[in-house]
Each structure stands twice: as structure tokens, then as C-alpha cells.
Amino acid sequence: xxxxxxxxxxxxxxxxxxxxxxxxxxxxxxxxxxxxxxxxxxxxxxxxxxxxxxxxxxxxxxxxxxxxxxxxxxxxxxxxxxxxxxxxxxxxxxxxxxxxxxxxxxxxxxxxxxxxxxxxxxxxxxxxxxxxxxxxxxxxxxxxxxxxxxxxxxxxxxxxxxxxxxxxxxxxxxxxxxxxxxxxxxxxxxxxxxxxxxxxxxxxxxxxxxxxxxxxxxxxxxxxxxxxxxxxxxxxxxxxxxxxxxxxxxxxxxxxxxxxxxxxxxxxxxxxxxxxxxxxxxxxxxxxxxxxxxxxxxxxxxxxxxxxxxxxxxxxxxxxxxxxxxxxxxxxxxxxxxxxxxxxxxxxxxxxxxxxxxxxxxxxxxxxxxxxxxxxxxxxxxxxxxxxxxxxxxxxxxxxxxxxxxxxxxxxxxxxxxxxxxxxxxxxxxxxxxxxxxxxxxxxxxxxxxxxxxxxxxxxxxxxxxxxxxxxxxxxxxxxxxxxxxxxxxxxxxxxxxxxxxxxxxxxxxxxxxxxxxxxxxxxxxxxxxxxxxxxxxxxxxxxxxxxxxxxxxxxxxx
Length: 559
Known about the structure:
Strand content: 15-25%
Largest sheet: 6 strands, antiparallel
Strand order of the largest sheet: 2-1-4-5-6-7
Number of strands: 15
Helix content: 55-70%
Mean pLDDT: 84
Number of helices: 19
Shape: elongated
Low-confidence stretches: none
Distance between the termini: 22 Å
């Protein structure tokens, strides 16, 4: 719901601040006073086209800020959250226009593209004007209103989601078919490559183990020769370490006297002799048991050669061959009858089409039923609005193509026949501005209970009517206001007398400059304004009495 509007340096308004309430708000005033300022400013806040000429003369820029409470507008809250612009229940739209024509848009203080302002604005407010955008002329509006009236918006969302999934699979299948030759060549290559890697069957870490084993086997002869020589030097030769140690020990053992200072040395020589003998024994056993297997070396070298060759072929390090094997095997499985194959995609496409068809059929049934009731209800409202000869028709026509569509199986369009005997034609081609406003009013009254647009704006909805019909228009607007929020510019006292909130627009001149002023009227001021609308400049006691009666009756009116 619109709660606050601030307009600065726009048109002839230097600064206007307005607070809005729920219900019906009427804007009245003399012709040319600037009633359009409010609606035009709201249109700009909703992303409408900006004009540098709208900046007040002498000012650098115009600044318009519209504040909304979105606590009960789920679509708007979702949109704000999706774009990371949510601020609890508040939504502030701001638009600035510089005198050189540049325009900037903001949502909750954050700069944003103008397209975002339009998207969000469409969820917050619908402006029905002869000079501004009229959503009633758009087929997508017709579809949304019918789905709202049918209570089928969730079903419509499910249908659209099913179509999107179907479309994604269809695109993947089409791409797969277009690349069929390339895919077949790729499939053959993958089969050959995977078979090679299957035969190699390289395990993680195996290459490093083989290289270590190759190094051991490649130096086997040198190891055996040097180990044998070491064994001789330790204990087997006459000049071996053990023999020389034994000779040194014999020399000390033959000393003529016992020398205590050499006791430790004797012990060390004795232990060294023993260790040298043991080292020699160990070396002999090592040489006897050492496996210098030339056949195993050949096997290892052949295995490593196959690994290196395949790694060069795939241009990857040898240690990455197992991971490459896994990836190529997975790709082969997907192309060869798995997910992503022609057969799999074709089967999935048919399954998704059936899902879509089921939802779309349910949606069509709901729309058909709702359309018949909607036409009857709107006809009743048009009768009250002095348009008894206008025939309203909700046409549901099958899509011209056989493939699923994002919005179901049919196109929806509102048609009218202005005169008996004439065929029903699209609204844009038949209805005049005033007629369109009243038709829109009738539609909005009927769908008000299910509409998700919280604020409706009507610009001079009462053009070309008067008397009892004007009173009916007022009642309808008040009814709409009871279910949400309605703003209307009116010249009829019968309409103004029934509003919940009354804004009076006037202009004045000061120091050769013209200004626009908008003020909220109290009850006595409202009666005087209704009297002015009834009798013009010269108001008599009878006019004021009539205005008071009309005001009292209007405030007690319930539709």
C-alpha cells in the first residue's frame, strides 16, 4: 500500500508531501490546478518515461519518492528478496530527473536499473489513465486477472515451471541432434581411449612403486659386487678388519704387566672385532639371498614404458592417468546410453511434456470455468455504469502452435462489443479512453477479492457520465477501496463525496512564479469542496446543504 509521496521541483510543485491511507482517496481541484502532478509523479516512481521539461523552472532536478508498505504483498517481498533489496516491510522507490534529461532510479536507497523500477512498480500499483500506460490493454494482464479470479495463480506458476524444464531438455536434445556427427566421432574416440586405459589398468601410486623397484633392480649387479667386497674386507680376507682387530688385541693381551689404563681399550677392540665379524656374516647372507631378477626388471621396464607412452599420448603427467581414466569413462557412459544420450533425452522430454500437459489441462479447465463467471459479473457491473449495450467477452483461444507454451494451452484476451449486433473486438480497438476507464473499473471491482495489485489509480474515470451513474461509480470505487487502496482524480461531486480521504489541489502565484499546493481536507472542508463541485464559484446555502447531504450519504454508502 502507498503510504507516503514526496514530490520536489516537479512541474509547478516546489515541494509536496502527502500521507496516504487505505481505502478510497479522491483528488479534486480546478482544471489546470495540477491534479495530474500526483499521478504523473507516481508514474515516474513506477519507472515511467522521464522528460527534462518536467523539472520545475529554475531547479536543478526533480525528486520523487514513493513509500510503500509491502507486508501483505508477497510478490513484491519475494522480488525484493531475490534482488537483495528487502528492508523488512518497507519499500521506497525514488526517481530523480535532472534538467539535462538524465534520470536515476533507486530502490530502498540502492541505485538500480530503470527496468527494475518498472518490474517492482507493476507489483505495487496499477495506473489506469487515458494518457499513461494502461495495463488493461495488455494480454498478459488479461491472463493474470483471469488466473487470479480462478484462484489458479499457483497452478499457472507450476505450468510455467514445467514448461521451462521441458524447454531446457528440448534445447539440450536439439543441440545433441545438431552435433550428432561430432558426438558419434567423440563416442568412437572415447571408446578407444577408455579401452586403452582399461587395458593399462593403472592404479593410483603404482607408477611411483614401479619406478622405485626399477631403480633397485637396475643396480642389482653393482650392489652384489660391492656387498661381496665389503664382506671380504670385514671378516674373510687375511687383511680384513676382523683379522687386523684380532692382531691388535693379541698384541695388548701379551703385555708383560697388566695396565689398568688400557682396560677400556681392550674391551673396545674386542667388541669391534665381534661387530666386524657379524657385519661380514650379514653381508654374506645378503649376497646369498639378494634377488637380482633380470626377468622382473624387464617386466617393470615394459610396464613403465606403456605408462609413459600413454601419458605422452594424452599429454598429461603419468600420475594423472587414473583420474583421466575416470573422467573419460564417465563421459563415455553419459554419451553411450546414459544421461545426455539421444535416447535418454528423448525419453525425458516426453516425460516432461506429459507433466506439462497434465498441469496445462487443469489450468485450462479452471480458466474456462472462471471466464464464464467473470463475463457475467462484469456485465452486471457495466449495466450499473450505464453501459448496458456493451458486451464483454473473455476469449480463450488455443495456441496456434503444437508445442507447450509458458502460459498454458490458450491465449487469453478481453474483447468488447460496443453496440448490439457488432462482433466483439479487442479493447484497444473499440473502447475510448472514458469507456476503457469504466470497463477497467468494472473488471477491477469483480476481481478485487483476488487481485494481488494493492493500489489502483484511476484518472478521470467519470469522464462522460453524470447523475445516477456517477453515484454508482463512486460506490464502486469505495468498494474497491474497502479491499485495498484506490486513488482517483474526479470532477464529480457524487464520486468525491464517497471517498475515505480527500486531497484538494490548487495553484497560486507568488513573486511571478506559479506553485501547486495539495492539502488533505477535513470533513467541513470536504463539504465545501463538494459544494464547489456542485455549484461553482458562487455557493449558496442550498448548495452547501445539498453538499452536506451528499457527503453524509456518501460516507454511509456500502456497495
